[in-house]
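Recap from last week: sequence in, structure out.
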Amino acid sequence: MIQLSQQNCIYAQIDPIDFRKGLDSLIGVCRGKLKQDPFSGAIFAFKNRKATAVKLITYDGSGFWLMHKRFSKGTL
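Predicted structure tokens:
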């Protein structure tokens, strides 16, 4: 389970991401475009081109979580 607190930072990549990218590529985006440390425990959010899905990644101290949510109706 991922717990959110007031100390958690959430970073959102505004430009759409190719959702064929896996975890390692998304970590590269965190380091490159967002200029943030993916091991910081922050939550990183990415959307697809059509804004019908979102991917979140975070590091919990023992490994990365990759969450993918596809909306059945509507967009972001």
